[in-house]
Amino acid sequence: MRRIPSLDGVRAIAIILVLLGHLVKWKHISVSIIGSYGALGVQIFFVLSGFLITNLLIQEHEESSTVNLRLFYIRRAFRIFPAALVFFAVAAVLFWQKLGNYHLLAALFYVANMDNSRPWFFGHLWSLGIEEQFYLLWPLALKKWFRQRTKLLILVVFVTPLFQVLLYALKVRNGIAGSLPVFADQLAIGCLLAIFHKRVPRIRKPWAAAMLVLVALSIWFHADTPVRTLFALFSIKPLVDVCIAALILHVIQVPYRCLNCRPLVWLGRISYSLYLWQELFCSNPFFHSGMLLIVPAVICAGLSYYAVEQPLLKLRDKWFRSKGRDQSSSRLSIELTLVPTSPQAADVAVSPAQIA
């Protein structure tokens, strides 16, 4: 499929924020001011995922009046599982003494976000669990309630902070605190962007600059009291989500050269593998090499991208092309069987009236 301009650059920025956030969190670098931007990087990934997946599903529905769930899940499996399984295998071999069966099963079934006791080398799998659960549930919901999709997503946006307030009031600290409903509004904003992006007029650069500043400054607000927490949940966080979605749309409408330069595009394309492998380096409490930890993470990500991701994606595309040819051949065969090929054949064709 045609790649959307600037989005690889957006992915690159998001993964850079995550890497820096992890380096600060594990005290590999001491620039604490950038530590909070790691969560913002994940937030960008969530909004972007909601947009891209919903955009694909809506395009398919426009072409075929339905969503083929089987083919969707096959595409996602080819995209996600191979690189993740290789990472799981390597991590299990390296840290088998610290890895319980429960942690491994939670990782394999993408429910690590509910596993609060997961070891540090599986710490980042919470977000992949959120994404995979979204990939599982949203296509089902969209297919069933396609006409009500906008109302459903708006409902999710309003219910999510209420759910978070409930968890806050009940002082919930178990796996529910990391469940999909806690982050569903970020994904829903991306989904709404996919629905309305063709109707939104071009966002002017001054407005985009103002939203970028707002997003950048949002991490300075500390929700350290009940009142500030409520203000953050119902005002700042939704506003930041909307600004992220608007900025994504803006850089699609106005493809900036910096977001489409080769190094940044390449980093965005390997961002999935980089997110997987950076945990072994940038979040490793036993390494103390500062920014240099990014180098082995990028090397492992590159190996994963070229040796695992790309071959499997090519195999997927080849399989889908063969399925398309088989279906086209089947349709052509049926048409040649049912449609008369000569005037003589037309004379002896059986009409529906005759069958009745």
Task: Give, in order, the helices and strands.
Answer: HHHHHHHHHHHHHH
Mean pLDDT: 90
Give helix % range: over 70%
Based on helices, strands and strand pairing, what is the structural class? mainly alpha
Task: Tell me, briefly, the overall form.
Answer: globular
**Regions with little confidence, pLDDT below 50 for 5+ residues:** 328-356
Tally of helical runs: 14
Radius of gyration, whole Å: 24 Å
Q: Hey, roughly how much beta strand do the residues contain?
A: under 5%
Largest sheet: number of strands, sense, barrel closure: none
In angstroms, what separates the terminal alpha carbons?
46 Å
Description:
The chain is 72% helix and 0% strand. The longest helix has 45 residues. With 356 residues, it is an all-alpha fold. It has a domain of 248 residues. Helix 1 runs parallel beside helix 11.
Give the helices and strands, then pairings.
Elements: H1 7-25, H2 37-64, H3 69-94, H4 101-108, H5 125-144, H6 149-169, H7 180-196, H8 205-217, H9 226-253, H10 262-269, H11 271-282, H12 294-338, H13 343-348, H14 352-355
Summarize this entry quickly.
The chain has 356 residues and is mostly helical. It is 72% helix and 0% strand.
List keywords for this structure.
globular; mainly alpha; 356 residues; 72% helix
